[in-house]
Amino acid sequence: MLRRLRRHVLLGHPLARRVVRPLPAPVKQRLLTMAGMSGIHRYQDFRDPTAKAVLIAEFLRGSVASYPQSVLDVGCNAGEITRYLNKEGFLTVGIDLHEVLDRVPPGRKHSALIPFEVDSESVPRLPSFDSVLLLSVHHQWIATNGDTATRRLVRDLSNKADKTMVIEFSCLNSKYGKYHPELFVDNNPASVTEYASEWLTETLPDFIFDFLGLNVEHPVDEPHRVLLGGRRIDSSTHPSSDISQ
Ligand SMILES: C[S@@+](CC[C@H](N)C(=O)[O-])C[C@H]1O[C@@H](n2cnc3c(N)ncnc32)[C@H](O)[C@@H]1O
Q1: For the chain, what are the domain ranges?
Q2: How far apart are CA 230 and CA 232, in angstroms?
Q3: pLDDT tens-digit profile of 186-230?
Q4: 44-233, which class in CATH?
Q5: Ligand 1, pocket-test mutation among 71, 96, 110, 118, most atoms within 8 A of CB
Q6: Whose CA is nearest to atom 25 of ligand 1?
Q7: Residue 47 contacts residue 217 (beta carbons within 8 Å)
Q8: Does the pLDDT of residue 46 top 90, yes or no?
């Protein structure tokens, strides 16, 4: 209760956001510590998985003629988006590292969440789906494996997407392990969208990506993340998905 009050009234207040946003990260961290809020920010605290899932469902429905589309949610974490899309009639499978799946709250209903680490050796073992989601995973791969290996992996993964892909980009250079030179202007959605569009055009020339919207991330460090949806240019030449047809 107290945590929710602090989170929404203090951190979430527009004035607080405006004052805190330009401060360097160490100063922000110090302020949070002084306010007794240093331990408060956990992964799902500020996110709204439903708002993100609604944007994704709209894009998927608008892109593919109506039949139950199969969707692979790569890096699904506790499976919030996977579950929402499943309830909306999509045939969903969520995959993530084993220890993250352990975070699904006890008793919380979930279906088709599978421990599966995506890498260049494991991708060929995946079946094909109508759509592949890569939400807030891309920056982690760049930070860990570098840009070239990430492009290769995302290209391999796109072979499992018969019709569409949805990718979410972080708006902080530090999340990509970058400080100088920067990839884009931090927390500037237009600049991040430009970076993301160029990255996707070069990496996935068989898809055309559009900006789908901004998702709320964290009121102090990173107010939004950028969501892009891509349609395969000629899906008739790509094999049909294994699990929905
Ligand atoms: C920032 S979270 C995003 C969670 C969810 N997609 C969302 O948008 O709410 C990134 C997730 O990707 C998972 N992940 C990162 N690399 C992965 C890999 N190689 N294979 C499977 N999951 C991975 C992490 O375990 C983590 O749960």
Answers
A1: 1-41, 44-233
A2: 7
A3: 999 999 999 999 999 999 999 999 999 999 998 889 999 999 999
A4: alpha beta
A5: 96
A6: 97
A7: yes
A8: no
